[in-house]
């Protein structure tokens, strides 16, 4: 076989847009009404500024972070709500509202060599498939007198290099829906030996394409938890609005289904995805690839440096010269573009047998140091990628069969020489005015200049701040380096323009560079499994009736008060009996807050301690202890002061940040000291702005990101600590109005349909009666005629 040469045929080209799939409505079955709207009938007061964007987020109560978000705009003229990201549009023609995504926002390492996530059952499955294959292959070769078995010499070498082991019954051991490889192998060795056998084997494997898609060995690295961060990294570090992805050689075991599923549900950008089939890969240049026809009629071919993401799934190891193949593929990818490579790095004999049997052309034999003349170990792949001008950005290995690599094509320019480093040293914003000036200066400089924001304090709000700032003027030119160690003994990298750590970071030129306890990574949204087994959890008894629970909020704001009251009711419905509502402002309707639950056996009290001070936090916890052991703290404090970053001041940041951050810090300190044993809940309601970003929300994103880091630290210390994304009350009320209007319309439509059906039934009954009457009349007439005929005959006789 010749060296790699691209002669592809377009198989499929698809435009993937943001989140257009319906989600199961059971997701929010246990969400409190203040989050998902419930039966609230209140209507928000709209003014002339009705055409305004909102960002709402919500979550389900559970450990860790839960994101349930949407971005929406309300038009008072048309009375329509348009939602983006998780909800495309509430006014669908089919009348069904799409459910937002349920996600976890957490730290994800860039490179992870540990295979602990993969169970021993995967190793056993691979071993059983291999033993079965060797045993049956040996029988085949013994019977094959006329050389019908493809690549027979190679298969004999495999048998000679392996010890014979007892074959196991795959039909009984591995018959589940995710054991497609075992089923295909059993079917394969049932084939009789005859001429041109390779074609029949190839057809058989194509028939099993859908089964291979879910096989636990072949798709071990295709899970959402592994693949989604990889796709998100590409989207975040691609400057264009659309991500242009091309998969080479996408036949059976293609990645397109997995990538498309992620892109349609949760990708922040639109994706244009093309699958290209290769024949032999040798002399034709990459620009012969015809892949854009279905996307843009003005371009007849895929030119060099046009692809954002090139996917190579088990392609490279089949080439005689891998370096030449990588160089040719590199020409297709933009500078700073990505390659997603999946290669076999273990269980080589099993893969060799399957490939040798299924390949129609002559099996390539190389003379280099590759295993079986074809395969490489993981470390060898990493060295090869580096030699060919790629940096390994993301790596995952299942420890049994394969490794997934996300590579980035190195930029021609030296980014470290065009870098400006700015340190965000504290949480008091002493650096803010200097940073505003620095951002203004960067806007006027050359586009290649990078602004690197550095934060070494583990509770810094850099992540949320960065996501919001990138959506304003300087965009992709601002990057972040965040030292977020959870262990006090962890190393702290030295960041300066001349340090090796910074030069490595600058070379990869990634937006997020988070260092945590020895590994670099980033924060990503990972979808949460919502399978039916989750319904077995008893959500009706989340709280202890003998313990007290504190809710901190602002009762002077009507929306926050109503939100708080719904949370209280939600907790009471789940066995909570003692609630202490805290607000430093004196509520005007304090009697009403307590009055609604009088006579129900429930204790609801109101406190005015100021928890933004240490003394206030101590006083609040002691007051709660008088009701009962403190079981939970819920912090709903949220203050907004939006504006573009260039117009922000230290005071505007402190106004938004101090109440939420100081209250969380103080409550964390006091609960660690007084109620480590009794505390089950420490919940802070955050915002998706710190994870997804929003222009004009840099101060809000910063403070929400700070409290999230505090909760992460608590979890690392084995203490309760959760953060949830919860929407503004106005957003909920607005959406509730839209939903109620839709429900009314649905009811009217249903009534009309029922009336029409009734009318049709009545009409049909009438018609049936008429037909029956006509039939009866006809029968009577026939009888009369017969009688008359008989009488005539009698008379004649």
Give the CA-based shape.
Answer: extended
CATH topology of the largest domain, what is it called? Rossmann fold
Write out the strand line-up for the largest beta sheet, numbering strands in chain order. Answer: 1-8-7-9-10-12-11-6
The major sheet is characterized as: 8 strands, mixed
Q: How many distinct folded domains?
A: 4
| SS summary, helix count | 22
Query: Structural class of the secondary structure composition?
Result: alpha/beta
Explain what the structure shows.
It is built from 22 helices and 23 strands. The protein is an alpha/beta fold. It has 4 domains: 9-15 and 220-409, 3-Layer(aba) Sandwich (Rossmann fold); 120-213, no CATH class; 419-526, no CATH class; 540-733, Rossmann fold. Strands 1-8-7-9-10-12-11-6 form an 8-stranded mixed β-sheet, with helices on both faces. Helix 14 (462-469) packs antiparallel against helix 21 (698-716) and helix 19 runs parallel beside helix 21 (698-716). It is extended and about 120 Å long. The N and C termini lie far apart (105 Å).
In summary, what is this structure?
With 797 residues, this protein is of the alpha/beta class.
Main traits of this protein?
alpha/beta; oxidoreductase; Rossmann fold; 797 residues; disordered N terminus; six-stranded mixed beta sheet; NADP; 38% helix; 4 domains; fatty acid metabolism; eight-stranded mixed beta sheet
